[in-house]
Amino acid sequence: MSELLALDNVSAGYGESVVLEGISLALNEGDSLALLGRNGVGKTSLLVTLMGLTRLHGGSIRWRGQDIARVPTYKRAHAGLGWVPQERMMYPSLTVEEHLTVVARPGEWNLQKIYEIFPRLKERRANMGNQLSGGEQQMLAIARALMINPSLLLLDEPMEGLAPIIVQELMRVIARLVSHGGMSVIVVEQHARLALSLTQKAIVLDRGRIVHQSDSASLLQDKEKLDRLVAVAA
Ligand SMILES: Nc1ncnc2c1ncn2[C@@H]1O[C@H](COP(=O)(O)OP(=O)(O)OP(=O)(O)O)[C@@H](O)[C@H]1O
């Protein structure tokens, strides 16, 4: 599989403050990665850095072999980076269907396919963005990112605050996206075991640095190490 994303010794942050340091990682097409760590260690900042929304203090980020340090966020989205932010960002003035159609780009994901994997969104297609439950908003946030037909999907704590039954439903969808193989996925999760069970590779951050890299299955089996690395909410 060919290389999709490569970070080499990346330092990044907000203004003068540096919150990520010495980050190096590579992702091939079809790879799935769990990005783990305690609260405030820089997981969201790493996703945001991939989208070009932090200040890059050093290092390089290559996307399909091209340096994208100066590429603006919207162009990164067009190039195939699909971001599902933690805040979900629904618009009260748009219906569910409008949220999906305004961002649509050609490719295998279209309304019909989205409604197949998220039947609830089909039922709610005429509802406004602010008339949805938390679970439905999360489904819509993922669906919207899929409509740009990304090569890499960035999921920031997709299960956060959702009822167990919705978590199960989302787990099934994410597992299907990962096993499909055509798209790469990075999942940030407080629930480390959920994320590890969905992915092939794992990275653990601590205070802005990578402190562990392995395949997900071996970290999942090493309970002691996992507890030590991520402590809570595993
Ligand atoms: N917009 C911002 N401006 C300044 N500092 C920020 C900003 N966002 C995050 N930080 C800081 O960057 C560090 C990493 O935060 P980040 O949100 O990336 O961690 P996280 O691992 O995603 O945490 P959580 O699990 O709580 O979401 C923290 O010290 C945080 O205070």
Automatic annotation (TrEMBL):
<keyword id="KW-0067">ATP-binding</keyword>
<comment type="similarity">
    <text>Belongs to the ABC transporter superfamily.</text>
</comment>
<keyword id="KW-0472">Membrane</keyword>
<keyword id="KW-0813">Transport</keyword>
<dbReference type="Pfam" id="PF00005">
    <property type="entry name" value="ABC_tran"/>
</dbReference>
<dbReference type="InterPro" id="IPR017871">
    <property type="entry name" value="ABC_transporter-like_CS"/>
</dbReference>
<keyword id="KW-0547">Nucleotide-binding</keyword>
<feature type="domain" description="ABC transporter">
    <location>
        <begin position="5"/>
        <end position="232"/>
    </location>
</feature>
<dbReference type="GO" id="GO:0015658">
    <property type="term" value="F:branched-chain amino acid transmembrane transporter activity"/>
</dbReference>
<keyword id="KW-0029">Amino-acid transport</keyword>
<dbReference type="InterPro" id="IPR003593">
    <property type="entry name" value="AAA+_ATPase"/>
</dbReference>
<dbReference type="InterPro" id="IPR027417">
    <property type="entry name" value="P-loop_NTPase"/>
</dbReference>
<dbReference type="GO" id="GO:0005524">
    <property type="term" value="F:ATP binding"/>
</dbReference>
<dbReference type="InterPro" id="IPR052156">
    <property type="entry name" value="BCAA_Transport_ATP-bd_LivF"/>
</dbReference>
<keyword id="KW-1003">Cell membrane</keyword>
<protein>
    <submittedName>
        <fullName>Amino acid/amide ABC transporter ATP-binding protein 2, HAAT family</fullName>
    </submittedName>
</protein>
<dbReference type="InterPro" id="IPR003439">
    <property type="entry name" value="ABC_transporter-like_ATP-bd"/>
</dbReference>
<dbReference type="GO" id="GO:0016887">
    <property type="term" value="F:ATP hydrolysis activity"/>
</dbReference>
<dbReference type="GO" id="GO:0015807">
    <property type="term" value="P:L-amino acid transport"/>
</dbReference>
